[in-house]
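so im writing up the methods section and need the Iron ABC transporter substrate-binding protein record in one place, dumping it here so i stop losing it
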Amino acid sequence: MKLFSFLFIAYLFLFSAGNVAADYSLNVTDIAGRKIQFYEPVKHVICSGPGCLRLLVYLQAEDMVAGVDDIEVRRKKYDARPYALANPQLKEKPVFGGFRGQDNPERILSLHPPPQVIFKTYPNMGHDGVELQKKTGIPVVILTDGDLGRNRTDLYQSLRIMGEVVGRQARAEEVISFFEAHGKELEKRTAGISEEDRPRVFVGGVAFKGAQGYQSTEPEYPPFSLINAANVAGNKGGIGKEIQHTAVAKEKILQWDPDFLFVDLSSLQLGEQAGGMYELRTDRAYKSLTAVARGEVYGLLPYNWYSKNYGSILANAYYIGTLLYLEQFENVDPKQKADEIYEFLVGAPVFGHMKRFFNDLAFTRISME
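--- predicted struct ---
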């Protein structure tokens, strides 16, 4: 009798567990408006395209990764991707294709465990998402990495979609609240500063699909925008904030003559005899700039490295604030703040790691000698 009772209970448990799997159904609508249905909980995924894996790490779901694109396994002298530095185990994952969405359907189908979903950013880059789904039979969910400015709702929508698929809805809301809170804090710290009391600033050497020289900049450079800095390359510089990236004429920089100059340290990749810092140090025209003469030149963490590293955007904003607005940011230790941000987003305080990558020049005054 006891044996019968035990077997009956075991049967009910198995039947119930089977029904849970059979009854599971999740419907999501991706950024492209495509409706996708899942019939079992998602445990294994891959992320295709710039910034895609970063979002998954933000959601603390990196343990679900079944494979990575080839940029994740490269070992280079420079690296400014906090999510990768905090999760070195990702380098040991099998490769399913090339970076920037160059997916290989055969490799994807050979992964073990097999992915139940392919998240994809920048769907027009590399392998077409719809075609990829047809070739693999694996649902492809299109996302976007948005930004922390006018397109922040796109970022938040992607986090929520991804969170729903991988069962990290609560974490998605935590990340969104984190970005909102820091945005409001930075706005509050700088809102009362009059326009005439805002030093004029310029950042050069901003990465764009690779390292660039000092004339490479952004009219709407996110760290400047978050603290309401007077970016000379913005609207009043005649470029227009609708342009995300541009190379300005050297003569323009000389004409603007900013109070503070910043260098995106991704420019170091161009070598010792090139790049933004080299140009500032060796070009006679740049030596005439007021900021160069006064030593007001500072190094910033690259943020545009396989798309946007949001933690670095926030960390740069706080650091720049401590230079431009001493009173408003007097209680901020920018290096400590950076690690607080990274620890929340990617799970580890990696500021020191990145600083060493970039010759210890991040968040420091750069000598022009």
